[in-house]
């Protein structure tokens, strides 16, 4: 009887151990937006808590960045952006290691939603988005824009990620330090969604949550960056 119980336990444990755990939100059988757990690292425990969002077409997206009230400081070091920070039910950055893992080997679309303090909401969607590994400085590959926000992102294609303590841009100075963010800066940016939460118009040049068509002296109220396999 004891041997039989051990055998049954071993079989059941083996089934669950080999079960395919959801790598991203689209693999979850969900019907409402909210915080769920995914397993991007080949079923290794523990999982990662993320915010999952369902759009009007029924597509399920994994949110990698979310800002809406300025409660979380985004002017952070390389290590913080590597591992992620904040909480998925609030403001957060998922983490560059997780973003890399999710976007490697399978094509992913990226959707960026932005909203200003007048209640105007717009979006930019990209057919292909991926981030390379840390040894490659989380280099950005993005193309295939559509939307109504204007394309303020694909011009950064091929750029490495930069923070104020790790300068990987192609400007003689440090874009992240100068413009108070962390991003795929070039010389320096056409968007800065991890910039300072100024709360609308600001006098300091290009250091807010800036997006192309709003200019370099207007910081947005809310931003969401989310991905899904296509």
TrEMBL record:
<feature type="domain" description="Fibrinogen C-terminal">
    <location>
        <begin position="16"/>
        <end position="230"/>
    </location>
</feature>
<protein>
    <submittedName>
        <fullName>Fibrinogen-related protein</fullName>
    </submittedName>
</protein>
<dbReference type="InterPro" id="IPR050373">
    <property type="entry name" value="Fibrinogen_C-term_domain"/>
</dbReference>
<dbReference type="Pfam" id="PF00147">
    <property type="entry name" value="Fibrinogen_C"/>
</dbReference>
<dbReference type="InterPro" id="IPR002181">
    <property type="entry name" value="Fibrinogen_a/b/g_C_dom"/>
</dbReference>
<keyword id="KW-0732">Signal</keyword>
<dbReference type="GO" id="GO:0005615">
    <property type="term" value="C:extracellular space"/>
</dbReference>
<dbReference type="InterPro" id="IPR014716">
    <property type="entry name" value="Fibrinogen_a/b/g_C_1"/>
</dbReference>
<dbReference type="InterPro" id="IPR020837">
    <property type="entry name" value="Fibrinogen_CS"/>
</dbReference>
<keyword id="KW-1015">Disulfide bond</keyword>
<dbReference type="InterPro" id="IPR036056">
    <property type="entry name" value="Fibrinogen-like_C"/>
</dbReference>
<feature type="signal peptide">
    <location>
        <begin position="1"/>
        <end position="19"/>
    </location>
</feature>
């Amino acid at each position: 009887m004891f041997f039989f119980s051990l055998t049954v336990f071993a079989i059941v444990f083996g089934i669950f151990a080999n079960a395919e755990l959801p790598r991203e939100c689209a693999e979850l059988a969900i019907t409402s937006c909210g915080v769920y757990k995914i397993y991007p690292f080949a079923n290794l425990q523990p999982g990662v808590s993320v915010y999952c969002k369902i759009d009007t077409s029924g597509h399920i997206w994994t949110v990698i960045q979310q800002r809406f009230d300025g409660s979380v400081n985004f002017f952070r070091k390389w290590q913080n952006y590597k591992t992620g920070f904040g909480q998925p039910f609030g403001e957060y950055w998922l983490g560059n290691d997780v973003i890399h893992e999710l976007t490697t080997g399978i094509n992913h679309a990226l959707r960026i939603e932005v909203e200003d303090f007048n209640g105007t909401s717009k979006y930019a969607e990209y057919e292909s988005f991926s981030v390379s590994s840390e040894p490659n400085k989380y280099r950005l590959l993005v193309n295939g824009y559509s939307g109504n926000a204007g394309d303020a992102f694909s011009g950064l294609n091929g750029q490495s990620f930069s923070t104020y303590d790790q300068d990987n841009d192609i400007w003689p100075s440090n874009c992240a330090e100068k413009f108070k963010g962390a991003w795929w800066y070039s010389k320096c940016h056409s968007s800065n969604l991890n910039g300072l939460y100024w709360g609308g118009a600001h006098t300091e040049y290009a250091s807010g949550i800036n997006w192309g068509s709003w200019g370099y002296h207007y910081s947005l109220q809310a931003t969401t960056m989310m991905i899904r396999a296509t």
